[in-house]
Every structure is written in structure tokens, then in C-alpha cells.
Write a structure and sequence with these properties.
Length: 289
Amino acid sequence: MFTLENTLLKVMVNPTGAELTSLFHKTPELEYMWNGDPAFWGKHSPVLFPIVGTLKDNTFYYDGNPYHLGRHGFAREKQFAVEDNTADVITFLLESNEETQALWPFPFTLRIRYSLFENALAVLYEVTNTGKADMFFSLGAHPAFAMPLVPGTAYSDYYLAFDKIENAPRWPISKEGLIEEFSKPLLLNSDRLPLRKELFQQDALVMKDLNSTIISVRSEQTPHGLELDFAGFPFLGLWAAKAADFVCIEPWCGIADSVISNQLIEEKEGINKLEPGGVFTRTWSVRVW
């Protein structure tokens, strides 16, 4: 486990999956991350790569060949190397090898950099195509924040605030983990979504192409909360395990297969294409108070 620290924050990251496990604000002495209780969900903030969500039949086709890959890909289970580590910045590296290319036939490097800036944590993803052909991939974050955040408050005391008014449907997820063909209403001329555990009884709330680029967790019962900036991520997932005391706010550059997917990776919704030698970067950040 690696620790980053400044005058306000203390952050812990596990090199397995380069996974953020703790985001602690020293002044109010508050832990913002879910504790990873395996009775509900044993992770904290897995990295989703090289796919986000589920493939139809856990299979995609490329260059006429089938490949099989489980939900959210393999990065979250891999051991990352540490490239550099200072008091408030750390960079992790994952490189493709024979094992990864049996599942995902594209050579790559994936770097993940965690940086502290006062009361904020920035998470940079950098994907490089090290192969000789175009590379296809998806990439996403899955941070789980503790809810209720403050002792003496309840889950339903909190709400999600979007920085712009939204008319945004949700895209339901089938029992096989695929995106259904038709959406359902969610946000109707509103910038607020009250948190309640019943929201996630039918899996995640998936949204596409929001106007907002910032989402906050707030409550009228406490001055403490958080703000997540996801500019550059065209999809957003919101999720919690059933009856669990957390909410995941998930910026995605990619999405699960549709129930009507043809399973061709080049034609997958939300897929990113990177030319040989190309570099793809995205950053999300979370500010806590």
C-alpha cells in the first residue's frame, strides 16, 4: 500500500489494480471512501480497462477472431509497477504482455497518476498504443464514496447535485449486464437526484452525454460533502450494492454492450480508437470538504 499526503489530505493506493482505497480529510477527520466490506462489495475504486461493463456473451470479435473477457476487464486485478513516488504524487504503470494479449489483442501501456492539490485528488489515465495497428479500448473509474458521510446522518439525507439542469434518461441494464435498447426517465428538468438505496435495486443508473461535467454529493444536514469533476467522460454510471452504505460515481469513456450489439469491437458503442504510437489521456478529480 502506498500513501500520499499533504497538509489536508491523506490518500492510500493499492498497487494491485492501482486502486484508490482511502481518501481521508485531516481537518474534519473524515474518511470519504467506502470501506470495502466484502459482505456487500469488496472493492473501493477499481480501474475499468480495457472495457467498461459487460460484453455480450463476454465475447468480442476482432480481425475475425473471438476473444473472451469478463466484466470491466482485467486491469483491476493486475499488479501495477510504480514509476515514481513523491509525497503527494504517485504514478503506476501496467504494460501488456502475452497474458493480456490473449484476452485483448492490442499492445499498450496504461499509466495512472494520483496527485494531491490542497483538498482535491486528481486521477490521470494515460493509454499509449505501443502496437503497429489501431488499438480499441474503453476506460473508466469506479470510486465508491461512503454514505452516510457523517455520523448521525442517514443515507437519504444526501443528494447528488449536477452543475447544470438535466433532462437525462437512464439506460437500464439487463440481467445479463447489457444496456437495454430503450431508455427510461430519470432527470426531468432538474439538477438534483435524491439518494435512496432503492435507486439501485435494478443495477446501475447509466447516463449518456450529460450537460454537466461536475457532480456533487451534498446534504442539508451537514456542511461536509464532495465534488467530482468528470469533464471529457461521455458516460456516467451511478451504483451501489443492494443495502450498502456507499454510492459509486463512475466516469466512463466506454459503456457495456447493448443487447443488440453485433460484438465487433470496432463498432462497439463508446469505443475509443488509438493509432499506433498514439496517446489518450483523461483526468477526473474529487474535491472534499
